[in-house]
Amino acid sequence: MAETNLAFSKIVATPTQTAWSQAYSAGRLFAALSLQTDIISEEEEHLNAQGKDLISTLESEFFTLENKGLDSIKQAITATISKVKSEIKISLIVCYLSDNILYLFALGGAKAVLKRGDKIGTVLQGGEDAEVKSASGYVQEDDIIVLQTKPFQRIISSSTLASSLESNNPEEIAETLAPHVHDKAEGGASSVILIYKKGELQDIPSVPLESSSNGEPSVENVEEESEEDVSAEKMIPVEDLDEEKVTSEEEAVPQKKQVEAVSIEPLSYEKTKLPSESSVSSPYLSDQMPRKRRMSVNFNLGFLKELPIRIPGRLSHSRKIILTIAVILVLLITGTSFLALRNRESSSSKALFTSVYGEAKTKYDEGQNLKDLNASLAQTSFREAKRILDDNKSKFKEGSGEERQIQTLLDQINKEISQASNGESAQVKEVDKTSSDLLSYEINNANANYFVQNEDKVFFLDGWDIKICPLRK
Fold first, then answer.
1. Domains of the chain by range and CATH?
2. What is the pLDDT of residues 242-287, one digit of tens each?
């Protein structure tokens, strides 16, 4: 048995009235636990007492197991969490190492992340319910395992975690992540970071770390090697770790298994090869698979080559009808899709036109209203309207109704701007003096100054004398 050294560090948030967490370790057993509730209890140590009782129960259930295998540990954890009250949300991730074999158990959104070399991946993530998910596999030298509760994941993003794992020292990783945890008022955040070391090296096949979309560890087969190249001593059996070892006689004569209620010829059922027969598959095995003998199902499609393919020279009347209907359906679907796409583009174009044209027209109308009052402001409005149209004119199909309306308005705006630049000319017309009494008195008294008119009289200054003349009716 190889000697194994484990270096680990813990991160635990400060508890609150509604959340409590703990990072636990005992020997080769590690766990990250959080309890949360929406009900604030009058007792100050309500969650604290619940958590301590939960850990005590886990210890008693685990360390009394005679055979610490995947199923037995899972049953112990299930029995432990059964004591948690319904109003308390639990997030738990448990890790147990036996030599170079890793057992993982998770529920309540907790997860385990593994770093191997330059690759980082999630090997197990629990669901939101109270069902315990489990996985087992082999670890290698310098593998880093990070156990995280769900509240811890809300604080520490994947990028932050990946950046901290550049260090191979659990204490340094914890020192990097701890400030993020303590800055947040999240009492349920806890984590255990451990690195696997062994004194006696073994030939363990490489494990791909890509995880599937549903959080379960991905299972990929390692390329098989021949019996001549790999000796039986270096192989690690892909089977239940609590099974009895297979004797050499059983290895020499593998037994064939028959699958009941399946009689389809193309399907072949083969027993997974024992360690002496082939190389090792991926170490991360789902506990959903049959425990005693794992079977593989292969689809043999070679029989398709033997099927005669005949193309009839003439089609029957019924087949012609079916073919015609199929063609009509294809054309109908294609036409409908084309019309729907065209209508969507038309609707989008109309919405854009309404926005652009309406805004430009508003600016143009403002300029018209200001033209006689303030020519400078009027020109500003005209130029703003021109800018709006110039920026968006190319977005409309050339020759379309929208493009023509925009061009018409643009011509009107350009005309107003051009008139202001060139200046408007006005012709002076001669006015007869009889058209105005005030004008008549000014003409007749050329030497007088300061002519003023009220309702019935005209006043003007002739030298030093003030003259008053009546208006002609």
1. 4-229 (3.60.40.10), 324-422 (1.20.58), 433-470 (no CATH)
2. 433 333 333 433 333 333 333 333 333 333 333 333 333 444 444 4
Full 3-state SS string of the chain: CCCEEEEEEEEECCCCCCEEEEEEEECCEEEEEEEEECCCCCCCCHHHHHHHHHHHHHHHHHHCCCCCCHHHHHHHHHHHHCCCCCCEEEEEEEEEEECCEEEEEEECCCEEEEEECCEEEEEEECCCCCCCEEEEEECCCCCEEEEECHHHHHHCCHHHHHHHCCCCCHHHHHHHHHHHHHHCCCCCCEEEEEEEEECCCCCCCCCCCCECCCCCECCCCCCCCCCCCCCHHHCCCCCCCCCCCCCHHHHHCCCCCCCCCCCCCCEEEEECCCCCCCCCCCCCEECCCCCCCCEEEEECCHHHHHCCCCCCCCCCHHHHHHHHHHHHHHHHHHHHHHHHHHHHHHHHHHHHHHHHHHHHHHHHHHHHHHCCCCHHHHHHHHHHHHHHHHHHHHHCCCCCHHHHHHHHHHHHHHHHHHHHHHCCCCCCCCCCHHHCHHHHHHHHCCCCEEEEECCCEEEEEECCEEEEEECCC
pLDDT of 311 = 47
pLDDT > 80? residue 159 = yes
How confident is the model over 71-88, as pLDDT tens digits?
999 999 999 998 888 888
pLDDT in tens, 7-17: 899 999 999 88
